[in-house]
Amino acid sequence: MKIADVTTPFAGACRVTPLAVALAAWLGAPAVEAQDAPPSPPAVARSYVEAPPSAPAVPAAPTDLLEALRGGPGGLTADRVAARALETAPGLERARAAAEAAHAAAAGAALHFIPRIDTSARYTRLSAITPPQLSFGASISAEQIAQARAAIAAVSDPAARALFTGQLDAQIAQSQGGFSFPVILDQYALHLGVAVPVSDLFLTILPAWRASRRFADAAEAQLASQQQSVALQAREAFYGYARARAGHAVAQLAVAQVEAHRRDVEALVATGTVPAVELQRLEAQLAAARVGLARALGGVAVAAVALRTLMHEPSGDAPGIGEDFSADLPPLRETPEQLLAMARDRRPEIRALRSVVEGRESLTTARRMRGMPRLAVAANADYNNPNQRFIPQSQVFNGTWDVSAVVSWSPNDFLAATQDGRAASAELAQARADLAALDDGLRIEVQQAYESYAAARDALAAARLGEAAATEAWRLRQERYRAGSAVTSDLFDADAEVSRARLDLVNAAVDLRVALARLRRATGAELER
């Protein structure tokens, strides 16, 4: 039988006995075939404390007590309480938010794979300036020109005079000629740049992304772990509530038994068969039984508040029980080693720490690689008016582009990356140590849960035999007392034994289901229905 298949079946019919009627009235069972319907649970509790009614008969079969714990289909079960607690537990909202933040961080790390793209648009207004005048030859003064012309005029050869005059005019024009660059006051620039960190993609970005993915998986596993813890807490609260209500029902029966003894003793005192002191002793025992009943009622109230708090439901009437505690649970077929293997595979805490270890490994690699030389490829495109690369400048748009391959390395980054790598390695060692410690604790937890479940099954079988034996002993002592061969102290002892046996039976039935819930939690099957 697999752990995930161990359930609490609700089959079987409840035997109609006076004990079943009394227990069902308080524990929320459906109406049984009787002449009069039992009063409401609060009324029953008050009536037992103020004016106890006639006592019901002791059950004829040892299973009647557990059968009476079974309520109707509308009552609470451990599964329903756990489901409600998972819907309303405030602590789970924080875990869900942490998981969402981890997934967002992983998505953010994946964005680093996209090449860096930068765009910009700029308008600039420049102040006006007077540009300098540029010339192409040496400057000739007016005096030098006059002297040159006088010398040319002294030449008698007309052809030579014309040649000299032309050369002089050319030199004068060259010395007086020049130009200046235009001043453009309004400038417009459009820029597009793309950068690809080639080496970082493999050395740092990829390991960092893997680490963030593992940390997100760890956050999801932590959420599942908290959900299982909340479900187990809810189940234990439900079983504590059922235990309190069953204990209160047993206290009711104890009061009813003493009431029945008192009537018998009253009749014997009236006939002079027994002394009146026996009746006084019964009155004292009745008072003690009523005190125990009041305490049991208080325990039910506290357990109900705890249960409603976990379910986040408003206060009201005590909720009914809808689970069958009379059904036995079959033994486990798996060995502790098999259960341990299941736990290692399914426990969310183990999955979380494994993901943390993997994430720390990738993060250590990313931090160490930050100190390595980097290779990056960058490309830029500009569309400017005026474009600085075009000379002389003109008030028109011109496009240009460039592509670069850059190799860079910094000794400062190398030293910092070395220390970051050491710190990451230490964190990785811590995570591995935590995983090993958790595995050791898991082995102990699974073994304890296995032994507790096996012991709880044996305890339930023994409690059933003990309840049957105590019930028969009570019946025989009552007959002996009525026949005059027993004293009142014998009845007191029998009452105490049968009440203790009933409580043992109820506690054993509840303990078995608590042990199953803890075993399912230990093996990671709490939420696998």
Secondary structure topology:
Elements: H1 18-27, H2 41-50, H3 64-67, H4 78-88, H5 90-110, E1 116-125, H6 142-153, H7 158-176, E2 186-196, H8 198-271, H9 276-311, H10 336-346, H11 348-369, E3 374-385, E4 398-408, H12 411-483, H13 488-522
Antiparallel strand pairs: 1-2, 2-3, 3-4
Helix pairs in contact: 1-8, 4-8, 5-8, 6-7, 8-9, 8-11, 8-13, 10-12, 11-12, 12-13
Explain what the structure shows:
64% of the residues lie in helices and 8% in strands. It is an alpha+beta fold and 529 residues long. The protein has 13 helices and four strands. The protein folds into two domains: 3-110 and 197-373 and 410-522, Up-down Bundle (Outer membrane efflux proteins (OEP)), CATH 1.20.1600; 137-196 and 379-408, no CATH class.
Task: Provide key terms for this protein.
Outer membrane efflux proteins (OEP), alpha+beta, disordered N terminus, rod-shaped, 529 residues, single chain, 13 helices, four-stranded antiparallel β-sheet, 4 strands, 2 domains
Brief summary of the model shown:
This protein is of the alpha+beta class. It has 13 helices and four strands. It has two domains: 3-110 and 197-373 and 410-522, Up-down Bundle (Outer membrane efflux proteins (OEP)), CATH 1.20.1600.10; 137-196 and 379-408, no CATH class.
